[in-house]
Structure formats: C-alpha cells, structure tokens
Please model this.
Amino acid sequence: MEEYVNAARELIECIKSTTSAPLACGYFKEYFRQKGFRKLDCDKEFGRLQPGKYYTDLYGNTVVAFTIPENITRELRIVSAHTDSPALCIKPVPEIKSEDAVKFNVEVYGGPILNTWLDRPLGISGRVALRSNIPGQFNERLVDFKKPMLTIPNLAIHMNRDVNKGMELNRQTDMLPIAAIFGDISLNKMLAQELDVEEQEILDYDLYIYNCEDGCLLGQFEDMISAPRLDNITSSYAAAKAVTETYGNTGINMTVLFDNEEIGSRTKQGAGSNAVEYLLRRIYGSIGIDNVELAVSSGKMLSVDVAHAAHPNHGEKGDVTNKVALGRGVVIKKSCSQGYATDCRMAAYVKELCESALIPCQMYVNRSDIQGGSTLGSIMSSMLPMYTADIGVPVLAMHSARETMGTRDQLYLEKLLRRFFE
Model:
C-alpha cells in the first residue's frame, strides 16, 4: 500500500501548486525543465532537432512535451489531458459595495456544482499582464495569493426555510464572493502589492477563484483521496510523469496538456483547434520526415480524463451492467455516439496493455437515458484522425469544489501511461 500512498501524496502536492490553468501551465513547464527537457519557442524556427527531450507551449496556455529517439520512424504515441477545472472567473472592475461588505463580480467557468462552492475558503490565482517599456508589448506574471481571500456565504436556513428542498442558485447574484467587511479594497491594489509593482503597470488579468482547502487521504485505511481539482490534475500529472520516465525506441512520445476543455475546447489553444497538427508538422519536418499524415494515421492516442464512479447512494444513476468503482483500476470509456472516442480496437489495445502490466481496468458506458460529458478524445481525434481511447481514473462528485477518488487508482494510471509510451 505504501507505493500507492506515495503516488497519492505526490498528486496532492501537485494539486496545491496548480490552482488554476495558468498556474498549472507554469508548473508543468517548470516540471519538464527540471526533468531535462529543452524549451522550444513556438513563435520561432525550431531548426534541425536532434534526438532528445523537448517542451513548448501553445499561446502560453497549453503545454506540450515530447521525446525524439535515436532511430526515429513515423511511429507516434500521444497522451492528452487538460489542466483547467470548473471555477469562478473574476470580471474586470470587479468591486461591488453592498451591505457593509465589498464583493467581487465573477462569472462561471465551465460547469461546476455551484452549491459546493458556498461557505468555503477561496483563493485567487491566475495570470496578470503588465505594462512594459516597449509599445505594443507587455510582461506576463503568474500570481497565487496562497491564502484564503474570499468566501460565498449561504443564506441562513431561518431566512430560507425551503433550502433543503433544493434551490437554484443565480450565477450573477448568489455566487458573488465577499472580499472584505472593513475598508475600501481594490483588486488592482491587491495585485500590485502581491507582485511588487505599481498599480498603473497592470493592464489586464485572467484570474480564477479556487477552493484553497488542501487535499488529503481519507478513510480508516487511507484508501481514498479527497481534494479539489482531481478533474483533471490526476491525468495531467500522470501524463507528465509518463513522458519524462520513458523514451520511445523508434517513435515520438508526446504529452499534450490542454487548456479550455471545460468550456468546450473551441479555442486557439484547445483540443478543437489545429494547433497540435501544426506543431507535429513542424516537428517531423525538423527531423527530416515528410508526410506527417502517415504518422498520424498509424499512431495511437490516449485521451485521459476522470470517469464517473458508481455513487454508493445513487447506484441507479449508473449503467445496469457496467459498474465502475473507486480503487478498482483505470476506466476505459465507450459510447456508441462517439462522445467517447474508444472503439473495440482501442479498448482491446488498452486491455492488453493493462494485462501485460498487471493493471486492473474497468469499462464505463453511460446509462442509456443519461447523457454524459464530452472529452478531449472525441474532439481531438476529429481534428487529428488517429486511433484514440478515452480513459481515466474513477471519481465521485465530478465538478464539485472537492472530489473523491481511490488512492490506488493514481498509481494504476501512471503505470498504464508509462506502458503505453514504452
């Protein structure tokens, strides 16, 4: 059990440092740098790439790491995941004074379970654009206040007697966090102080509110993990580890950590763009291999995102014959509508990988009268047509401010992704 617990504790530490997509992007770029990967700038020519390990970013939001072996062929293996999570995003000029308090105006990012964000200590992190001395250019800084800054209080039951019968939260009025009860505060002043810059240097920001409670091991036997942002730092961390710990014999191994999955991926840095296709053309061209289409058509991709575990209190919400449980292994997700990209060929391929590495696996399909969510796999494989499987670790309370998974499953996933790259 110690090996599983160690992997779980590593994941919890990673989650503490990846409190928003911009912070996750910065974290994984530094992670790859420390693992000996060489940085490439996407807005510059790559030149002739030699065998080795490389990383880059797409528009400062999506991180890509890949390895080029000595005896290179067109063989291609890709693991994709996403770094963003459902959250609240701070609007420009956010300060609202009301009833002896200062609130921040926010909008909802993705599809969170809104009521799970109430009465929690909330932090602020993200990206800030600062004025530079060169017209038309700016400096970029990441920021994480690393302490509770806000809270969204529930209305007392005495004033809402029907609250336990269920209520719909209004995104504009019910989800505004309190920032202060004394003083006239300004977010720009707070940022200037935190970044040690002048307030007039701040041009704009992408700031997210996050649950700043630490993750923990849970249960008498520490067989569960309770933490924010399991969706989808579990997958991103496993994918990052896998590409750094393996080196393909003849082909390119690539990990892509996308932003914007939670809002549909239809962005320049999302899985629904041509960004990865363009990057692959540049990489293969820089090593003297033409016709990247052959590499794509014969390649394989694992799209890694969390899966729905059967809920102990609501077993009826799951499929009647395909039950997924916490701690019982990696999940292969299938859908005849191709909401998940897995077909029988790739399901068989993943099962054989699991068997060869003694990794337990499970099959997931949606209950026929419940529509599941979309994945990177179904979106990306339509842009980059290659054999794809959707997999992930099972979780409970997906899109809650705090989710639950099995302790064993993180190590299972890490082992499977290493096996895939090997």
